[in-house]
Amino acid sequence: MMARSSQLSELVAIASAKVQQTNLDKMADAFAALAETIERLKERVNSPSIQIADKVMLTLQDVAALSSLSRNHLLEAIHAGKLKARISGRGGRIKRDDLDAYVKKL
User: 3-class secondary structure for the chain?
Assistant: First the structure.
């Protein structure tokens, strides 16, 4: 009876180890797939479909990046009427030509 119980315990331990390994393998596969997805998303974020320099209408963030002027400086220029902008909702757009004209006047 004791030998049988020992064998049963040993079989249970082996089965448990196999289940744990299978679960670990599944988790490793899921993490690998997640890592691949994250890398693909990083590539999409870091490579815009249209380069900022090629855009006709720019966001304030685009204008700041292109002109190296601070966001506050640009907002002051817009409010003073020195830089034309089309405000819509929370955001606004600035024509590339208007930005070029403003920068030439600086």
Answer: CHHHHHHHHHHHHHHHHHHHHHHHHHHHHHHHHHHHHHHHHHHHHHCCCCCHHHCCEECHHHHHHHHCCCHHHHHHHHHCCCCCCEEECCEEEEEHHHHHHHHHHC
Closest CA to 60 of 81, 35, 41, 86: 86
Are the CB atoms for 50 and 62 separated by under 8 Å?
no
Tell me, yes or no, if the pTM score tops 0.70.
no
Q: pLDDT digit string (tens) for 26-70? A: 898 999 999 999 988 887 776 667 777 788 899 999 999 989 999
Give Cβ neighbours of residue 91 (< 8 Å, ≥ 6 apart): 59, 60
